[in-house]
Design brief:
Length: 258
């Protein structure tokens, strides 16, 4: 009598069976959604390429704007004093280049500086209206650039002074005092004091001069402010009345004439 050895059927462990089952479901899912996954990958690649393209385009614009601003600055500061025609041509070319920067590349890091320099170039050419417009455009477009904002208001006040508009000049200088982080507040106080002197308001002028001396004792304008305070106070102090003179008594040795 022969015996048959029964071989038990091969079965997977429970964990391995679950693993194989999950892997099969995942593969089936990939097969069912392969086109959606492929489209998603393509879109992701396109988005990455678009973002890289934007950065590359911005970098190119920034480089072009910087080159134009550098060229304009060379024209602005290399004007020959002994050749007025050449100096005027260089100034005109500098203005044109600064305009290109702010018109063609307004979002580049160089644009705020170019806008400020454009106002300065107009001011040097004695075009006060264009200078004031350029400074006001800087304030409206690049007001967040605190490092330049105080200087822009200072130049704007000076342009209004040349124009003879003292009220707008005083407003421009007063705005500097309200800018947090402005480095030229001492200059603004000094110019406000001088304006008040020109308006025959000595009390207001004294207030600004004294504020300058108290708040910014190390400013190079402090000594001049102290001198102006002395002058104003001297003008306010009335002159002492001259002492009354009494007639000299007659000399008894000399008889008076009849």
């Amino acid at each position: 009598m022969s015996y048959r050895i029964k071989v038990p059927p091969r079965t997977l462990p429970v964990d391995e069976a679950h693993l194989v089952s999950g892997l099969e479901h995942w593969m089936l899912g990939l097969a069912n959604y392969r086109w959606s996954i492929l489209v998603g990958l393509v879109l992701l690649l396109l988005m990455g390429g678009g973002i890289w393209g934007v950065f590359w385009y911005d970098a190119q614009n920034a480089s072009k704007a910087q080159e134009l601003e550098r060229e304009a600055t060379v024209h602005l500061f290399t004007r020959a004093a002994n050749d007025p025609q050449k100096a005027a041509a260089n100034l005109k070319e500098a203005i044109a280049l600064y305009k290109r920067v702010v018109d063609e590349y307004p979002r580049t890091p160089t644009a705020p500086l170019a806008q400020f320099s454009l106002g300065n170039a107009h001011l040097q050419s004695n075009d006060l209206a264009s200078a004031i417009d350029a400074y006001n455009r800087f304030i409206s477009m690049y007001g967040a650039h605190v490092s330049l904002l105080g200087l822009v208001h200072q130049k704007l006040g000076y342009a209004y002074l040349l124009k003879g508009d003292l009220d707008q000049a005083a407003k421009a200088y007063s705005t500097i005092l309200e800018i947090s982080g402005a480095m030229n507040r001492d200059y603004a106080l000094f110019e406000l004091a001088r304006l008040e002197e020109n308006r025959s308001r000595p009390d207001e002028a004294l207030k600004h001069y004294q504020d300058l001396m108290k708040t910014y004792p190390n400013s190079p304008l402090t000594s001049e402010a102290a001198m102006r305070v002395k002058v104003i106070e001297a003008k306010k102090t009335p002159d002492p009345l001259p002492a009354a003179t009494t007639p000299a008594p007659p000399n008894p040795s000399k008889p008076s004439k009849p």
